[in-house]
Amino acid sequence: MRSGNHNGKISVHAISGNHVVTLGLDATDEAMVGLLGFAIRRTQEAKNESYFMRGYKPFKEVYPQPKPGVYYSSSEQPIQSFIWGDYAVEAGQTYGYEVIPVYGTPKNLKYGESVVVEITAEKLENDKHEIFFNRGVAASQAYAVKFGDKKPHQITDPVVRKDVYDWLSRGLIESIINFIKQAGDGDRIYAALYELDYPPVMDAMKSAQLRGADVKIIYHAKKEEKQTTDNERVLFNAGFTLDDKVATFARTHPGNISHNKFFILIKGETPKQVFTGSTNISEGGIFGHSNLGHCIKDDVVAADYLRYWEALKNDPTQEELDDVVEDLQPDIDPDNIPMGTTVIFSPRKTDAMMDVYVKALGNAKELGNITLSFNMDKRFLAELERKTDAVRYVILNKDKEPDKKKKGTEIILKEGMDYVQHFRRDGDVYIAPGGMIGEGWEQWLKETLTGFNGSTVLYIHTKFMLIDALTNDPIIITGSANFSKASTDTNDENMLIIRGNTRVADIYLGEFFRIYDHLYFRYIVTKFAKDDEEGGFLASDSDEWLRLYRNPNSSKFKKRKIFSFGFD
Predict the structure, then answer these.
(1) Average pLDDT, stretch 401-419?
(2) pLDDT digits (tens, 9 = 90+) for 464-505
(3) In total, how many domains does the chain have?
(4) What is the distance in angstroms between the CA of the first residue and the CA of the last residue of the chain?
(5) Are 470 and 456 in contact (CB under 8 A)?
(6) Residue 182 is part of a domain; what is its CATH number?
(7) Is this structure's pTM higher than 0.90?
(8) Residue 37, CA distances (Å) to 74, 77, 248, 473, 537 in order
């Protein structure tokens, strides 16, 4: 949902997802003179609440020695940004935001004329698309304040431990279990999964079977792999017979990995819903690194998934499967992406769909966003290096390529090169790599990861791209594939291309910048702020923080204009 208002000097554009409201603020040149930031008051009439939002940074003149974990009211320590996100909203609830420009000096603040906007967060329930993002930012100040520096497994109090898992899940595990619970006597629920070693989900599938549902599970079972052992152990413990060709089907002959993560709900003879996305059914997938689940309630889409599932259950080789896959959906034209929802399955005969994804990003007129869990394919790198009118934002799991190239990887940057620094002077490409505040200093608490995700993919596991998300014709590409060659022509994968749905775009965009801003801040803090005595403080001079927002060559200026409601 989108809503906006202005008073001729200050404008506010609110964009809501399920758990995120993003405010795009703007000010005229006149209103920027002496502007120290914004005070933001949030009101929720349904709960009889009204209070100023808070931040971490104070003016040094007021708090010369800020304490770790302390928040400051924006009425006294204003927000110095034109893009601000409220990441603590409840789905379906209505909120009012009063934005007040702050002037004067740090010890003698003055307030200008405010602007009020009201918006309702999107409901989780929807007749077409339901989207569930986990927290995906365990290494955060919020986790440190709520739960300290202990990993979830180290918390022994069962009540606190449940709170930790609920906070990390943010509704993702509940959405998976609830999807399965829809399958009753006479229904069918089919799944194709790479990792399924989180027992409660397989227990839920067994419960559906006991209710009378026809349950069938294709699982990754390549020989001599630990994931195969983990999958089979959990299936066996849940009460399933392994690879019995009735309820369980071992996928032993994928080109590389059977990387799908989807469930199909079939009512009677009609496929009705699909639950897909980036989330492996594992503790790390659900509660650790960033992931999402996307439920599509569409008979045609569900039927496509069922045809694909029927092909997978026979354990075909890559060569046998790619003919079926391309019959289901041939490659599409990136300059003529269909309206509605298109499904792209893998493996394909070639990696031509990678060129489609790259061209789609290149077609962005205002704003392009992409998350990359592993290495950046050389085609994406070449596209990002091309100058365009759009601002492109990239979230990566790591800031550097490996020091040594591995066989089969598509690395073309110099070994050890920092992606952020590579694009630092570009002006149109901005990258946030995974990171955390690993030790406490100044007002920042020490942060900790969950410990669920090994050492390879600690932060980012989502695989989605947004093209001009704030227009009335957005494109969302999301699914299990990592925007890589292997994910296109070798692995079992599924990808959704959704065009023209502003609700879906708003949800994805809010979550993208929630994660981007979180990680980019940590990159700056860990790389530079420790050497900058003013890094943890608000700017006392308005020109200092406004400079980039006023510079037409800066991403901050462009992002301000893209998110602006305007003054017309």
Answers:
(1) 53
(2) 999 999 999 999 999 999 999 999 999 999 999 999 999 999
(3) 3
(4) 20
(5) no
(6) 3.30.870.10
(7) yes
(8) 9, 8, 58, 32, 13
